[in-house]
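A quick word before the example. In earlier lectures we treated sequence and structure as two separate objects. From today on, think of them as two lines of the same record. Here is Glycosyltransferase written that way.
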Amino acid sequence: MKTSIIVLTYNQLALTKQCLESIWKHTNHNSIEIIVVDNGSHDGTRDYLKKMSSIKTIFNEANEGFAKGCNQGLENALGDNILFLNNDTIVTNQWLEPMIKLLYQDEKTGMVGPVSNYVSGAQQIPVDYTSIAEIEHFSQGYCRQHQGESKAALRLVGFCLLAKKEVLDKIGGFDERFEGGSFEDDDLCLRALQAGYQLKIALDSFVHHHGHATFSGNSDLSISRLYQVNRQTFIDKWKRDVTAFIDPQPDLKELVPSASRSILHIGCGAGAAGAELLNRQTCTLYGVEEDAILRSIASAYYEQVIAADTKACELPYPKAFFDAVLIGDLLNSSAHPQQTIEALSVYLKPSGSLICSIPNTAYADTLYSLLCGTPLHTHFITPQNVNTLFPKHLYELKSITPHSAVPESKIQLFLQELKFLARQFGLPEDHLSTHAHIDCMFVHAIKKKQNETEAAM
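And the structure line, produced from the sequence above:
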């Protein structure tokens, strides 16, 4: 099995030499081919590459950007696997083998990435080295400690991205609408997930990344401009910001008992929370999501994702089927939240967990919206009465956790004026001060067993 390593260059000769030398030092030459696509360098990079008989080279007269350059390399690749690698990286001993092993550990896995010192998202790890000479020592210790470990993700960064060639044949390469470099890797990952492939991070593969070297070393490139342009391109294409796809709903997820094996997630989004649950525990996930695009992406990690009518709570599952049911925002998905909470008990096993995020009507932003005539919610639920949503004969409340948020400046000014008026009319301020900064409550309720339910009735 051969891996085609595609490296893009645009000046930065010293970093390119460092990158290629690390590949030759730490990789079996017989298992790889190196393809370097130069995007119009003028610092001696082209002359250096022309002397390298052991690599394939493609020379562009101008900077064609990251997406197009990678696609040019892809068109000339003969490997079973494709690895896109930035030229401001340094690979380490046994960097490639763990990623390939993980890539073929499961036929569902379509793309894999390593951990690094400089990368956004879940691939970044803390490092303690302070020089290039110390990288190898750190990498060996870290990778030995995490040998064979991996985790699922909804996003892999393109600084070092390994994919099965058959996956790229199916979903295509990078979208060349993205200029320069940013968001094209997010886009590729989402298309892989839509096609049913999972993304994995190999925790036992470490690649050092200088980070943004192409931008910092070339004055003709503006990283901030490219970021804004590509961010808008991403929004125009996917009709939503990237954050809509990668929010793991941490407060909700942390309440799920580690023993839960069958989990229903109403409002699962693109499945980021589900992927994190799979990283933490052995479970089978079922999702409910109205948005078709988000539903198609979540399906990569969920056993089934449907567009059920959550208002009616008519779900295609047997009674007492789930160990846990998660609801991202109950009041936004139900006209009668108490009835919904009661109906969902049918699908929970005895002692199963119902975990909800419930907006606080006394939150400053919500009070302000009421004044403006644009109420955010149709129900009046606060930290004082949220417990009344859960019928005592069905549920025992395990915890109610308030979540605080800082309102924007104009809302804070409104809150100050509201407190002033309360003092003028002799009204108590304690509840206003305490509850106005709580945007929602996370409630964990336990379904009572049958004999407990009968006793309560």
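Notice the following. DSSP finds 19 helices and 16 strands in the chain. We will return to this example when we discuss secondary structure assignment.
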